[in-house]
Amino acid sequence: MSVSDYQLIEAWKEVLTLSRLEAGQTVTILTGPTTHPQTLACALIATQAMGAVVNRLDLPPVNGEKAFSRDPLAYLGTTPLTGNLPAIAALKASHLVLDLMTLLFSPEQHEILKGGTKILLAVEPPEVLMRMVPSLADRARVLAAAQQISVAREMRVTSSAGTSLACPLGEFGPTAEYGFVDEPGRWDHWPSGFALTYPNDCAAHGTIVIDRGDILLPQKHYVSEPIVLTIEDGYATRIEGGVDASLLGDYMQTFMDREGYAVSHIGWGLQPRARWSTLGLYDREATIGMDARAFEGNFLFSLGPNNEGGGRRTTACHIDVPLRHCTVMLDDEIVVRNGRVTDTAVTTS
Question: The pTM is what?
């Protein structure tokens, strides 16, 4: 069912209020050719209605000769901001940037955030945004999980499908994604709802089994037969299985970059309004798959860069894989048991 402009404008106002937008502050809305027109139109109205000084910065696409799909996360090389000093200056001079284009894993984004500018990414379809309007309860739950991560020294993940992974922790801090930006220099993503971190460099080891029904992103594909990843010294050294394994392996080989095989962020989903099944309702180019990343109880692991968490590894290849039915332990504490989060908080608003 489609979303009315009125509903989406009210949703934007709610998220902007949570993000502490004040009258007189400068908001720059960053757009590109794939920006959803209704999301943009309603963001423009909502920010102006709240008294902000509003600009729109529209940038042309890049990486066309290297792209494998229209998904902005399918290639993490240069961005439309690369070398674009006037555009970077405009964003750094803003109190808040609404990223309707996607700047993830870019040095330009880090530069903008360091100056205190807040960045909120919002590129999912309007009905997904509406269903997962963030709340203070979301924030509290995700921050509690991030605190658990911050004091842990190891994350261990097991499943009946055969996953047995050990990730030493401590080199990188936790990341909490709850859907709004309420502090200077904060980045977040509406919609979201998960806590994550990055394992110590070159330290993760074990086996990951991507089982039937688990999801590959950016492929946006439900796996039909198990894929077995062997993790040694922080890298996926073998990708074994049938056709799905061959497709994943071929895709990753095209980048010709060993760093694409490194274990990147690890964590678990905490958003009960996100659903594992929703991805199958959308055309692949209509969504980047945030339902899949955030649904409650998944173990979300990734391969590729760690510069978003403070590391030095960059690569154009980035794979996100939410796994179902896993048990996740932080040291000796179970935080997810067979795909069910063990805390008692459930956000429904």
Answer: 0.94
Task: Name residue 189's beta-bridge partners.
Answer: 121
Q: Give the pLDDT band of residue 341 (cuts 50, 70, 90).
A: very high
Closest CA to 219 of 114, 106, 73, 110: 73
Taking residues 26-45, report their average pLDDT. Answer: 96
Q: What is the CA radius of gyration of the chain?
A: 19
Cα–Cα distance measured from residue 72 to residue 301, given in angstroms and rounded to the nearest whole number: 19
Question: Which numeric CATH code is attached to 5-130?
Answer: 3.40.50.980
Q: Where are the domains of the chain?
A: 5-130, 133-341
CA atoms of 91 and 112, how far apart (whole Å): 7
The owner of tokens 């890049």 is 62
CA dihedral of residues 316, 181, 295, 297 (deg, nearest 10): 100
Residue count of the chain: 349
| 8 A C-beta contact, residue 278 and residue 289 | no
The DSSP string of 92-117 is: HT-SEEEESS--TT-HHHHHHHHTT-
Which tokens is 15 given? Answer: 């998220």
Strands 96-99 and 26-31: parallel
